[in-house]
Amino acid sequence: MYHCGRDTKFCVSTVCGNLPKSLHIAIALRRYSLFFCAITNKKNSVMGNKQYAAAGLCLLLSISQGVKAGEDGVQEEDSVRYFTTEEVVITASPKETNDLRKLPGSVSVLSPQLIAGRQIESLKDISASVPNLYMPAYGAKLTSAVYIRGIGARSSGQTVGLYVDNIPYLDKSTFDFELTDIQRIEVLRGPQGTLYGRNAMGGIINVRTLSPFDFQGTKLSVSGGNYGLLKAKASHYRKLSDKLALSAGGYYDRSDGFFTNEYTGRKADNEESAGGRFKLDGRIAPRFTAAYSFTFDYTSQGAFPYGKYDRANDKVLPVAINDPSSYNRRMTANNLQLEYRTDKIVLTSTTGHQWFDDNMQMDQDYDTIAKFTLAQKQLQRAFSQEIAVKSLTTGNYQWSSGLYGFHNDLRANAPVTFKKDGIGMLQKVFTTLKEENPKMPSISVTDEELFIPGRFETPSYGAALFHQSTLNNLFTGGLSLTAGLRLDYEKQRMGYDSKAKMSLGMSMNPAAPPADISGMYEPSVMDESISQDFLQLLPKASLKYEWADGTFAYLSAAKGYKSGGYNIQMSADVMQSQMQYDIMQKFSPQLAVEPSPVKEVMAYKPEMSWSYEAGIRSGLFDNRLTAELTFFYMDIADIQLTKFTASGNGRILANAGKAESYGAELSLHARLADGLTANANYGYTHATFRNYDNGREDFKGKRIPYTPAHTLSLGLQYTKLWHNAAIDQFTASAWCNGAGQIYWTEQNTLSQPFYGLLNLKAGIRKGIVSLNLWGRNLTDTGYSMFYFETSDNAFMQAGRPLQAGAEVAVTF
C-alpha cells in the first residue's frame, strides 16, 4: 500500500474540451434529481408516510467505492472521470507519532475498494477479514461481542474500543450500526492504552467517514435478495465553496429473517432499520479546519433466535419461544472536530456526544414454557472531550500529548416477571425447606405472576493524561524507539432501586387449604448506592529497525486494561434472595440465610494484561507484494468471563483467575496483474486458563471459550476497463472467510469446528449506472454462531444460510 496525498490523482477530462456523452447525461440527471428533491421537500408538510417513503427514494445509496476505484481503476468524482495508479489511503492520525504504514505494531487498513468489494456494511462484516478478529452476528444488535487475540466481552463492557472519526463509542450496545460512505477502517491489534485508554486491551477499531472535500456527487443504490432483503441508500456530497462542504445521506434496510419460530409460525429474527448522516466540513483558514457530523440510527428487530441443542443427536432444534423476544433502539451521535496547525505542531479538539434509547424484550427461558421474561430499557447520554497536540517537525524526535475526559450516564430499567412455571421454581425453595424441617408449616406461593422491578443508575466518569515520544535514528540510522505513558482514572457508581412482594399462603395441615399470610409481612426493598474507583498507569514501548523504506522489524511491550463494572442483569437473583430472607426472618429466623452484600455480588474487578509482540513488515517485488508477520504473547490477570446465574435468571461477568494467549498473524496483499489483486489474512490464537478453579472444577490448561483458534480470509478482486465498448467496467470479488475451532464451554467438551464461508460479488458499469450480483455463504455451509447453557438446558444460534441478490447503483 502506497501512502498518497490528495494531489496524487490527475484529472484528464477537464483539460480536454470535449466531455464524454455519458458525462453530459450525468450532469443533466444530477440537476434533475436536485430539482425533484426540492419539489418533494416543498410538499413534505402534506405528505403521509407513504409519500415520505417515496420521497426518500431521492435519497437511496451508494455502492461507489468512495474516493478511489482501485488500481488502474476509474473513479468518478463530481461528474468528472479520474484515473489513479494506486488506491489512495490516507494514513494520518491526530495522535500517533508514527505513520500507520510504519507503526511498530499490528495494523490492518481496510480500503474503500475492499469495503465495497466485500460488502462490508457493519462491523460484524469485518470478522476474520482482519487476523485474529472475530465478531459473531448473534442475538441482536445489542450483543456486539468483539474478540481479538483470544480476549473479548460477551456482555458488559468491552475489550476492544471503537472510534468513529476519532470519537469514542462508550458502550458496545451501540457498536452494531450501518456503515455508509466509509473512507477506511483501521484495526490496531494489541493493547492501545497509551493513546486510547480504558477498554482498549484487545485493540482499537477506527472508522473514518468520507469527507465532502474529497468527493463530490450523488450516489444511489437499491439492493434486494432472498429472505425478504431490501436495502436502499443515498448520499449527496457537495462543495459549497472553497471553505465549506457538506454531505447528507440516508439508508433503509429490511429483512424477513432467517429463522422461523415454530411456536408462532412467524420469523424470529425479522429486522428493519433506517438512519442517516449529515456532515459539514469547513476549511475556515489556511491553518484552521472544523468538521461537524450528526448521525441517527433506528432499529426494530426480532431477537435471540436460539434453538434448543439436542446433545444426544448433536442437533439444533428449531426456534420455539412463546413470549416476545425483540430489540428496538434509537441512537444519535454528535461529533465536532477542530484542528489548528502551525509549522511545528497540530492541535486537535474532538468532542463527542452519544445518545441511545433501547428496549429489549427477552423470553429468558428461550422455550415454550411460561417461566420468566426480562424487559430491559436503557437510556444513555455520553459525553467525551479530548485535546491533543502533536509535533509536525521533520527531525528525529516526534511527540504527542493530550488530555481526555468522559461522562457516561447510563440508566436501565430491567424488571423480571416470573410466570406459572417460574412460580413453581420459587415454590421448590419452600418445599425443600419443609422437607428438611418437617415441623415447619407448609408455605405456598399464591401469585399467578410475580413482577420484580429493577431500576439502575450507573453513571461513570473519568479523565486521562497521556504522552508518547518517538526517537528516530537512535544510535544508528533506521533504529527508532517509541515510548508512551497514560495515567487513567475512572469512577463508577451504581444506584439500585427495587420493591417487590411475594404472596404466600400457610397451612399447618397439608390437607387444609393455605391461609393468606401476605398481610403479615412488608414488601422487600432494595435501595443500594455503591461506587468503585480505578486508577491505572498504562505504559507502552516499541523498538523498531527499518532497513529499507517500508521494510522494518519491531518489538513492543504494553499494558492492557479493561475496567470493572456492575452486573445489573442478575438483579432478580439478588431481589429473590432478599425476599426469601425477609420472609424467613418473619416466620423462622433460625432458618434465615442473610444474602451476600450487593457490592460483593454485583460488582466485578478490572481485567489486566501485559502484551509482548514481535513483527516484520515489508514490501517485495517493487511493492507488488506487501507482507506482515506478527508473533504475540499476552499474560492476563482477572480475566472477565460471562456466565449465567445459578437460577438462570440473568447473565453476569465474573473474574476467572489468570490466562495466557499467544499466537501469530500473517497478512499478504499482492498485485498479481493489472486490475487483479489478492489478499490473505490468517490468525492463530492459543488462549488458555493458567489458574482458574470455580470451586467445582479446575480449568487449568483449558481453552478460553467463544474465541476461535484460527481465523482465515482469502480474497481475489478483479477490475477490467473498456473504452467505447458496450460496458465501461467489469468488477468481481471472491473471498472466503473462516473461523474455528471455537470452544463453547470452560470444560472444552463442545465446540464449533473450523468452517469457511464462500462469498462473491460481480458487476458491470456503463456510464453512471452499475449492476451487481452478490452472494454470501454460497455453499450453504451449516455452522453455529453462539452457544450457552442455562437451567439444565443448552441452546444454540445457527449461522446464516445462503443469501443472494442483486444491486443497482447510480453515481453522478
Describe this structure in words.
By secondary structure, the chain is mostly beta strands. It is built from 7 helices and 49 strands. The strands form 9 sheets. It has a 25-stranded antiparallel sheet that branches. A hairpin with a 2-residue loop joins strand 45 and strand 46. The radius of gyration is 28 Å and the shape is globular. Mean pLDDT is 85; it is low at 1-88.
Quick description:
The protein is mostly beta strands and 812 residues long. The protein contains 7 helices and 49 strands. It is globular.
Helix and strand layout, with pairings?
Layout: E1 10-11, H1 21-42, H2 49-55, E2 74-77, E3 80-83, E4 106-110, H3 112-117, E5 133-134, E6 147-148, E7 151-152, E8 160-164, E9 167-169, E10 182-189, H4 193-196, E11 203-209, E12 217-225, E13 229-239, E14 244-255, E15 271-285, E16 288-302, E17 307-310, E18 315-319, E19 326-341, E20 345-363, E21 372-391, E22 397-413, E23 416-418, H5 420-436, E24 442-445, E25 450-452, E26 455-457, E27 460-471, E28 479-500, E29 504-507, E30 515-516, E31 524-548, E32 551-562, E33 565-566, H6 571-587, H7 598-602, E34 603-604, E35 607-620, E36 625-637, E37 640-644, E38 651-655, E39 658-673, E40 676-691, E41 710-721, E42 729-740, E43 742-743, E44 751-752, E45 755-766, E46 769-776, E47 784-790, E48 793-798, E49 803-811
Parallel strand pairs: 8-11
Antiparallel strand pairs: 1-3, 2-3, 4-10, 5-6, 6-7, 8-9, 10-11, 12-13, 12-49, 13-14, 14-15, 15-16, 16-19, 17-18, 17-48, 19-20, 20-21, 21-22, 21-23, 22-26, 22-27, 23-25, 24-29, 26-28, 27-28, 28-31, 29-30, 31-32, 32-35, 33-34, 35-36, 36-39, 37-38, 39-40, 40-41, 41-42, 42-45, 43-44, 45-46, 46-49, ...
